[in-house]
Amino acid sequence: MLTHPTLDQLNAMGFYGMAKAFQEMAANPEAQSLSHAEWLALLLDHEARLRQDKRFASRIRYARLRHNAVPEDIDYRTARSLDRRLVTELLTGRWIDNHENLIIGGATELAS
Asked: Of 30, 101, 103, 106, which sits 20 to 30 A from 12 (CA to CA)?
């Protein structure tokens, strides 16, 4: 099978994630043992993930956030009554899977 025409066609159609995954899988000898359905599923998964990542990056740019905050930077030593165990539990996202609501209230502080 010729891979170059397939890669060219995937790229021409805008399936960049699938094209990259196709190249990686074609070069991987372990991928030869996969069925056609498994190959297709992996290609589609790569494409979907790439598109999701691009949408997320676009939304982040559009939001023009001033700070790149991450949960690891939370300072639990200050007197804000933050429960580390509760925050860790919320970060797992299980409350979303369980279709539960979340309201966070209180004053905000700006770090200088």
From this structure: 30
Q: What pTM was estimated for this model as a whole?
A: 0.58
- 3-class DSSP string for 49-94: HHHHHHHHHHHHHHHCCCCCCCHHHCCCCCCCCCCHHHHHHHHCCH
Positive or negative torsion for Cα 41, 46, 51, 57: positive
In a 13 Å sphere around the CA of 93, the CA atoms on its Cβ side amount to 1
pLDDT digits (tens, 9 = 90+) for 21-38: 999 988 888 888 888 899
* Residues with Cβ within 8 Å of residue 71, at least 6 apart in sequence: 87, 91
